[in-house]
TrEMBL record:
Coiled-coil parts of chain: none
Keyword Iron: no
SMART domains attached to this UniProt entry: HTH_ICLR
GO terms for MF: DNA binding; DNA-binding transcription factor activity
Keywords: DNA-binding, Glycerol metabolism, Transcription, Transcription regulation
InterPro entries the UniProt entry points to: ArsR-like_HTH (IPR011991), GAF-like_dom_sf (IPR029016), HTH_MetabolicPath_Reg (IPR050707), Tscrpt_reg_IclR_C (IPR014757), Tscrpt_reg_IclR_N (IPR005471), WH-like_DNA-bd_sf (IPR036388), WH_DNA-bd_sf (IPR036390)
Protein name as annotated: Glycerol operon regulatory protein
Keyword ATP-binding appears in the UniProt entry: no
Ranges of residues in domain IclR-ED: 69-255
Function noted in UniProt: May be an activator protein for the gylABX operon.
């Protein structure tokens, strides 16, 4: 292989790597300083990355964060089997233990993409089947992922009202960022995500994120059950079982506990 470097490609990848390692969006000046690059070069490269969707510019904060295209590139790794292979036996054990259908989902832009489903014996079929995409803000998996992101990064994913698609009849209850932020703050306080009837009427789900070595949410595990089958006081115990599985999967991908 040739040792010749392409400077623009090298600098672009360094910018993306820095944004991926950071806990939130960064000012262009900080990017230039940390990478020891001329500011003019950084601004030109960020403009190109923004044009192609790999970077988002948070105008009010004068910061840059990863864009939708970068998120999709990240989740592509999970879709290409490793995460699903590692997670399949863990999810099966969880479903056998709690007797609720379980799912493993990864972020896909502003959606979650379901890569595994393990149906509990006798449970009905659900819309959260493998390869189905659903709006992130409507699902327990998506809310778990969003709640684990830095606030600025979650805000960057939903910059305006148009970002809140309504492909589900009941998902329009979250149609603005202030409402989403309230739900995510509740999720962080509670320690697990919860949705009731947002995806399927009469069903509820709890979810917990799967974190990589940086503490970044790369996926989420959730279980779904009939709303009236699990009492409110039983939810923390159910969530603890889901958390144990998420922690085991995080550990197996060299992540850290949640």
């Amino acid at each position: 292989m040739s040792d010749v470097k392409v400077p623009a490609a090298d600098q672009t990848l360094r910018i993306l790597s820095l944004l991926a390692r950071s806990r939130g969006p960064l000012p262009a000046s900080i990017i230039a300083t940390q990478l020891e690059l001329p500011r003019s070069t950084v601004y030109h490269l960020l403009a190109t990355l923004q044009e192609h969707g790999y970077v988002m510019h948070l105008l009010e904060e004068k910061r840059f964060g990863l864009g939708i295209a970068a998120v999709e590139l990240s989740s592509a790794y999970a879709r290409q089997e490793p995460l699903a292979r590692i997670g399949r036996p863990l999810l099966a054990q969880l479903v056998d233990r709690v007797r609720c259908s379980g799912h493993l989902a990864v972020p896909h832009g502003r959606d979650v993409l379901y890569v595994l489903e393990e149906r509990a014996p006798g449970s009905p079929s659900l819309v959260t089947d493998v390869d189905v995409r659903l709006p992130m803000q409507a699902t327990a998996s998506g809310r778990a992922i969003l709640a684990a992101l830095p606030k600025a990064q979650a805000r960057a994913l939903f910059p305006n009202k148009e970002a809140f698609v309504h492909r589900l009849a009941s998902s329009d209850s979250i149609d603005r960022y202030s409402r989403l932020r309230s739900v995510l703050d509740e999720t962080q306080t509670r320690g697990f995500s919860l949705e009731r009837g947002s995806v399927s009427e009469g069903f509820a789900s709890v979810g917990v994120p799967v974190l990589d070595h940086r503490g970044w949410p790369v996926a989420a595990i959730a279980v779904t059950f009939l709303e009236d089958a699990v009492a409110e006081e039983q939810l923390p115990e159910l969530a603890a079982a889901v958390r144990g599985t998420a922690e085991a999967l995080s550990s197996r991908i060299h992540g850290k506990g949640v």
